[in-house]
Design goal:
heterodimer; A: about 450 residues; alpha+beta; Alpha-Beta Plaits; Sulfite Reductase Hemoprotein, domain 1; five-stranded mixed sheet; four-stranded antiparallel sheet; about 30% helix; about 15% strand; globular; B: about 375 residues; five-stranded antiparallel sheet; Nit/Sulf_reduc_fer-like_dom_sf (chain A); sulfite reductase (ferredoxin) activity (chain A); NO2/SO3_Rdtase_4Fe4S_dom (chain A)
């Protein structure tokens, strides 16, 4: 017998898509039955009260969580999102309902042994409800009480060799695409760099020292499966700078219809027979491809590596062998100044362990600049807008490069540095008047 | 419920404390076929919706079965995922960047029993637990946020509208009939945690009423300059207020004409709540993408200024999304993302094709860049 009536939420149990309501109800029942005889460390009816408060929100059209909440574990300045219900008497099971962010392994591969261990811990010391995963990448434990935070953290670190993720004005939990683990397009080992930088910058992740939050994301190629270009302050996108490798026989097999374009991604509709001219050559954004006499040619010098031809013919076309990353900076959501995507700051850099160039020539100079100059709650992208891309170039110590702009400026409001101008800026008006009367 | 210690000693909190160990190493969790073939993959194919094969230069094959996940999930559900992975996949499983679940097997004959097992599992209410799909030119999982289940600033719920939308789009999760893949995302306020600003179709929680001011508590609860600095349109200024009991307190004043209800002041100051049952609702955006394929990444654009919150199933939201998906499916060329289609035919045609009203709310008026979104050409379609 459910503790609260949930007529609105119950309507979300029908339909084909997996229902979160059915799932939470199942967990509520499991806790009520407690077949394993667990000594639950937070209220046994936490899941029922969670459904109860959500039903009330469905009725009121408003959230029932109080503003903010500052909780955590000693030694760290983040990792836990405190939350308190604004109807604690009615829903005591969720009076405290804090979220713990648990640092996920790169690539989000798991063994069941590890996941089952985490489930046992969270069932015992929390609500038994999770997010798999948070948008930034963390495993999210949703709902526990303040006294359990240190206990969960102790178990995580001592039993699971596992740390918390980031929250607050710091380096947040980095994340990556599946990369070389299971993708032929990956231009570098996204898991290796994600893991290395996460560990190398643990202090910056656990103890907020920044003007605002800062995120890293690692995409193996310009398809951007982890959306680094839109969702990280520093975006690492794999690329190559030599030639796309062409397997002429496989090209013929695509043209002959033996191989399905785009790995069969469009198989749900009849788009007609594959037409290499129409579907590949004509769609190339730089028109650097040619198909004639049964032969495909690419003028690689003019290729911008958008991935389209490789995506369409994965068995015939492969990424080049001279690989690295393109680095873009400043992506963010709208607040305050408007949304930004990453701006290209490093066209090409090798990405090989231990990644010293990326650490010393990119990340740390940018942090030194932003930590000193960034205003309170100003993202890197906004500092770039306020002080200019020129300042970023100075910080990186690189030469300006036409690859860094979509187009040159159209307004003529050009700043010059005094030492760039012959004779400097100190001038005598009386000297001027000798030749130009008032 | 008796307190059970983990071994942590609150009297000596820093004793035996382990810190800065980070995540577990990814290699501990690679299935053997991944470990053996990492960096050696030659090509892949989508065998059917939800089923991929990757072929390595060693000749090894890895079959992946992708299933929907509702992101918000219980430990019972995760244990069921583990049971499936133990039964079919040697105890390995992974999650995608869109919160789908991937079960991997190393030979083709293991695929069908796995798919059949996944599709046979249903909740009591009848929904699938593990619907197979989410690959190729279809609609995959919806990236979403906390909503009323855990956040204090939302203007709508997340899990509910996502379930309602995925029910409506379910056939496209299981099929690959669209011109290109179509990414849907949701954020319950314009902090846009996740991918709303860069998705083909985006659902965004929005307020339409300025904050209420809890003058009696404001100066006690808030760092007033931070609340003032939080406003993108400078609608907030400091003020002094006389309470009913005659005491004068420091507070803020909001110029309501200049407020566009972003809620960022409430994020900074608990005494400025703005949630409202009838004021709050949903904005629909469209045409964003993150990949660099053919065209550069794009921001999504506002195409519907307001749809009311209609819990539990948000029918107007799901109808509108379905309408956009069908117009796109009908009008776009092969490989063309929704934003590329809209730009090719012109946004004036997009509104016509999708049968959406164009209202003054859709015209940008935020600072200098707004000008560049107006039309400085005589090239348009009647």
């Amino acid at each position: 017998m459910a503790k609260h009536e949930t007529p609105l939420l119950s309507q979300l149990e029908t339909g084909p898509w997996p229902s979160f309501v059915s799932d939470i109800k199942r967990e509520a029942e499991s806790r009520a039955k407690n077949e394993k005889g667990i000594d639950y460390q937070i209220p046994v009816d936490a899941c029922e009260d969670l459904l109860g408060v959500l039903e009330l929100s469905y009725k009121h059209g408003r959230t029932h969580w109080k503003h903010g909440g500052i909780v955590g574990v000693f030694g760290y300045g983040g990792g836990v999102i405190g939350r308190y219900c604004d109807q604690p008497e009615q829903f005591p099971g969720v009076a405290h309902f804090h979220t713990m962010r648990v640092s996920q392994p790169a690539g989000k591969f798991y063994t069941t042994e590890y996941l089952k261990g985490l489930c046992d811990l969270w069932e015992f010391r929390g609500s038994g409800i999770t997010n798999m995963h948070g948008s930034t990448g963390d495993i999210i434990f949703i709902g526990t009480t303040t006294p359990q935070l240190e206990e969960v953290f102790y178990e995580l670190t001592h039993t699971f060799n596992q740390d918390l993720g980031g929250s607050g004005s710091n380096l947040r939990t980095p994340s990556d695409c599946v990369g070389q683990a299971r993708c032929e397009f990956a231009c570098y080992d996204t898991q290796a760099i994600c893991h290395e930088l996460t560990n190398y910058y643990q202090d910056e992740l656990h103890r907020p020292a920044f003007p605002y939050k800062f995120k890293f994301k690692f995409d193996g190629c310009p398809n951007c499966c982890v959306a680094s270009i839109a969702r990280s302050d520093l975006s690492f996108i794999g690329t190559w700078r030599d030639e796309i490798r062409i397997d002429a026989e496989a090209v013929k097999a695509y043209v002959g219809g033996e191989l399905k374009p785009n790995g069969g991604a469009h198989a749900g509709r009849d788009w007609g027979a594959f037409d290499i001219q129409k579907e590949v050559v004509d769609l190339c954004p730089t028109k650097c491809m040619r198909y004639a006499d049964g032969k495909l040619e690419i003028n690689n010098k003019e290729c911008t590596r958008c991935m389209h031809c490789i995506n369409v013919m994965p068995r015939a076309l492969r990424i080049g062998n001279d690989r690295g990353v393109t680095i873009l900076a400043g992506a963010k959501a709208p607040i305050l100044d408007g949304a930004q995507m990453g701006t290209l700051i490093v066209p090409f850099m090798k990405a090989e362990a231990p990644y010293d160039d990326i650490k010393e020539k990119v990340i740390e100079p940018i942090w030194d600049w932003w930590m000193e100059e960034g205003k309170n709650r100003e993202r890197l992208g906004e500092l770039m807008k306020r002080q200019g891309l020129q300042r970023m170039i100075e910080v990186l110590g690189v030469d300006p490069d036409p690859r860094m702009v979509q187009e040159p400026r159209s307004n003529p409001y050009i700043f010059w540095k005094e030492d760039e101008v012959e004779g400097g800026w100190k001038r005598d008006i009386n000297e001027f008047r000798k030749y130009h009367k008032r | 419920m008796a307190f059970v210690s983990s071994g942590y000693n609150p009297e000596k909190p820093m004793e035996n404390r382990i810190t800065d160990i980070g995540p577990r190493h990814f290699e501990e969790f690679y299935p053997p076929a991944v470990k053996a073939n990492k960096g050696k993959w030659l090509y892949h194919e989508i065998l059917e919706p939800g089923v991929l094969v990757h072929v390595s230069e060693t000749g090894d094959e890895l079959y992946t079965v992708r299933t929907g996940g509702c992101r918000l999930m219980s430990v019972s559900h995760i244990r069921e995922i583990c049971e499936i992975a133990d039964k079919h996949c040697g105890g390995y499983v992974r999650f995608t960047t869109r919160n789908n679940i991937e079960f991997m097997v190393d030979s083709k004959d293991k695929v069908k029993p796995l798919v059949d097992d996944l599709m046979s599992r249903k909740q009591d209410g009848g929904c699938y637990k593990f619907p197979v799909g989410g690959t190729g030119a279809g609609i995959t999982n919806i990236i979403h946020t906390q909503g009323w289940i855990h956040c204090h600033t939302p203007a709508t719920d997340a899990s509910g509208p996502v379930k309602a939308t995925m029910d409506v789009l379910f056939d496209d999760f299981r099929d690959m009939r669209l011109p290109a893949h179509l990414r849907v995302s949701l954020a319950c306020c314009l902090n846009m945690c996740g991918a709303v600003h860069c998705s083909d179709i985006a659902i965004l929680g929005y307020h339409r009423k300025p904050p209420m001011l809890d003058h009696e508590y404001l100066d006690k609860m808030c760092e007033i300059p931070l609340a003032i600095a939080a406003c993108p349109t400078a609608a907030i200024k400091p003020s002094k207020i006389k309470l009913d009991n005659g005491t004068e307190v420091k507070s803020v004043a909001v110029n309501e004409e200049r407020c566009m209800f972003c809620g960022n002041c409430y994020t900074m100051c608990p005494s400025m709540p703005l949630a409202d049952d009838v004021g709050d609702g949903i904005v629909i955006m469209a045409g964003g993408k993150v990949s660099n394929r053919i065209t550069a990444p794009k921001f999504s654009k506002v195409v519907v200024a307001f749809i009311p919150n209609e819990p539990p199933r948000w029918p107007k939201v799901t109808d509108t999304i379905k309408q956009i998906v069908e117009a796109y499916a009908k009008g776009a060329n092969k490989y063309e993302r929704l934003g590329e289609w809209a730009e090719r035919i012109g946004w004036e045609r997009f509104f016509e094709a999708c049968e959406l009203d164009f209202t003054h709310h859709l015209i940008d008026d935020f600072r200098d860049p707004a000008y560049y979104t107006w039309r400085q050409t005589s090239n348009f379609k009647f």
